[in-house]
Amino acid sequence: MASGTIVLIVLVLGVTVLGFLAARWGGANLTNLDQWALGGRSFGTIVTWFLLGGDLYTAYTFIAVPALAFGAGAIAFFAVPYTTIAYPFAFLVMARFWTIAKKRGYVTSADFVRDRFGSRWLELAIAITGVLATMPYIALQLIGMQTVLERSGIAASHDSALLMLIVAFVLLGAYTFTSGLRAPAMIAFVKDTLIYVTVIAAIVIIPAKLGGWGHIFDAAATALAAKPTPGSIVIGPHMYFAYASLALGSAFALFLYPHSMTSLLSAKSADVIRRNCALLPLYSIMLTFLALLGYCALAAGIHETNNNFAVPDLFNRFFPNWFTGVAFAGIIIGALVPAAIMAIGAANLFASNIVQSFNGRQTRAGGASNLARYISLAILLGALVIATGVQPKFSINFQLLGGAWMLQIFPAVVLGLYTRWFHSNALLAGWFAGMLTTAIMAYATNFAAVFSLSFLGTSIPGAILLYAFIVNLIVSVVFTWIFRAANVPAGGDLTATADYA
User: Fold this and answer.
1) Three-state DSSP state, 462
2) Residue 422 in contact with residue 480, Cβ under 8 Å?
3) CA nearest neighbour of 242 among 82, 395, 111
4) Can you tell me the distance from the alpha carbon of 143 to that of 59, in angstroms, rounded to the nearest whole number?
5) How far apart are CA 297 and CA 304, in angstroms?
6) 75 and 239 in contact (C-beta within 8 Å)?
7) Using H for helix, E for strand and C for coil, what is the string for 135-160?
8) pLDDT (tens digit, 9 = 90+) per residue, 200-258?
9) Phi and psi (nearest 5°) for 454?
């Protein structure tokens, strides 16, 4: 057995043991939903930094972003400003959300919407959106794992890689069920260390062996121009709006995902969130170099019909075998950590806002925790079905499709933190219009992220998620005016001004 394979197996088994041991962390009662799903809302700055880093920078970071740069060029770098814009947004908005969630015991964003707008149907819409958006995002992590298993040499074929993927997710499901959020929080320390070590090694070794960045950019530009669908290392004027709208829309959607909310609500104070918003851009610097690995793969002459293999092939070519095992372990663990948090976040929504909401919240403390555990397993199974049944050209589209859905809850959740001007029925109508627009545009583009909108004889390529959000906002505003003019009763507000302070 090759040294890299041994290193990879040892590291993955090691973090699996950590995942089960995490159940003993702090001696918490994990039958309580706050303890199982949110770590008892007790994590400080360092744990939260690793947890959020492990949650937000995933297999998507290692595989999908460089794959997009390898296959399409500069458009992939939308991920860098997107993660940069997201932190000032979180600093201002999510710290406020944490405050009211702590005071009123909210576990999900749908909990807040229900109390703020007095609408169970709106709460249900928020919950369904979160569950729907999370499963394709977990599927993205699965694709990253499967890619590594195939390219690491552990799996002899695509089918054997799929079998190993199933085994890995059985283990993931088991320690998520047992330890809750404490498992990914503990494993995130190992994951982030491996990823930082790998990225530093990659940016030191690979460009030097390829003749420097000047040669890499020249070679990448030539290779992209020669592709069947030509790309470029520079964004053309016709794609300016697509690039900007992808970055802006994705930034607004990032912290609306159930898994992002779960990590944020596990912090012990709003100041912990603010400090992390100042520290997390360190990951964005790493993301820049990771995206550039797509260009390195082009400069190295790697030819792949599956863009997701670009980075694994690059590592296989330039790293010694044992270190390739370290890098691949980082990617696999980088998929396990967020997948666990995503399953917990989606399970919280399903248990609290789809099932428990209609049974009465007085049963939440014990019953919801047990229910959420089982639902987390179902969520993982659903993601596995998506990952094996749908293979889009660029796996990053899984994340962008989920982002388009998540952005449709922005008016109710984010604007709802500051105003109750919107009518609850109008928000529901806007949500439906946004979801429908997303579905139509995604289908028309074969599930791509960019849709060309024809307007006055001009074609405007833009991000589907932002187009759908604009439709949502317009419908919400217009219907609020109509419902208010018609004196249609709106739901009551159970929150108070003091809850937000």
Assistant:
1) strand
2) yes
3) 82
4) 8
5) 10
6) yes
7) HHHHHHHHHHHHHHHHHHCCCCCHHH
8) 999 999 999 999 999 999 999 999 999 888 889 999 888 899 999 999 999 999 899 99
9) -90, 125
Reduce the DSSP state of residue 164 to 3 states and report it. helix
Residue 267 DSSP class:
B
Kindly report, residue by residue over 478-490, the tens digit of the pLDDT: 999 999 999 998 8
Q: In whole angstroms, what is the distance from residue 374 CA to residue 452 CA?
A: 42
Helix extents (H) in 212-320: 213-225, 240-254, 258-265, 270-279, 281-299, 310-318
* CA 334 distance to own-chain centroid: 12
Using alpha carbons only, give the angle 457, 459, 465 rounded to the nearest 5 degrees. Answer: 135
CB-based contacts of 414, cutoff 8 Å, min separation 6: 93, 252, 256
Residue whose token pair is 């405007």 = 460
Please report where in the chains the tokens 């627009």 appear, as a residue: 437
Tell me the C-alpha distance between 240 and 166, whole Å.
41
d(CA 54, CA 338): 6
End-to-end CA distance of the chain: 59
Q: Which of 249, 272, 212 is nearest to 406 (CA)?
A: 249
User: Can you tell me which residue has the tokens 């912990």?
Assistant: 272
What average pLDDT score do residues 120-132 get? 93
User: In this predicted model, what pLDDT tens digit does every residue of 17-71 receive, in sequence order?
Assistant: 998 998 888 777 778 888 888 888 889 999 999 888 888 787 667 788 898 899 9
Task: Provide long-range contacts, Cβ within 8 A and 24+ apart, for 43-47.
Answer: 43/185, 43/266, 43/267, 43/268, 43/272, 44/267, 44/268, 44/272, 45/272, 45/275, 45/276, 45/279, 47/185
CB-based burial label for 405 (10 Å; 0-12, 13-18, 19+): buried
Asked if 138 contacts 380 with a C-beta cutoff of 8 angstroms, the reply is: yes
